Amino acid sequence: xxxxxxxxxxxxxxxxxxxxxxxxxxxxxxxxxxxxxxxxxxxxxxxxxxxxxxxxxxxxxxxxxxxxxxxxxxxxxxxxxxxxxxxxxxxxxxxxxxxxxxxxxxxxxxxxxxxxxxxxxxxxxxxxxxxxxxxxxxxxxxxxxxxxxxxxxxxxxxxxxxxxxxxxxxxxxxxxxxxxxx
Length: 182
Description:
Shape: globular
Order of helices and strands: HHEEHEEHHHHH
Radius of gyration: 16 Å
Number of domains: 1
Strand order of the largest sheet: 1-2
Number of helices: 8
């Protein structure tokens, strides 16, 4: 996807996350973008790896930095111990006005991801994103096998928490089918 269109999709996602009570730290944006790209099949072109707190994209981290440099995003400090919120910057509205078709094309995708993930805490996002990662890694595995794999990768995640995350991801996948098919 061309850079300006990618920026517009990310800005739309951030706005939807905020509507759905996310404080939009980088972890929220990373995990929501992972779901948007991998589950919702939005072609953002970010390479994700399994990292300390679940799937992470250095490409996306670089894109966020570049968008800040272009005044498309800005940081809003949060009280300790939280990192800053990432908000649309001064130049975001004019860019979004230039790409209304792109915004509309992916609006249902970003809305569903934001609805499902917006109010989640970082530890929940880690579990859910790792569950999605493991699901793609082991498509034919059942809930218990995927939960065990999550626990093996992330020992601090209990089997019960991992099992709940796999079931949530399965439901999210089911909910996303109509949007992807459209």
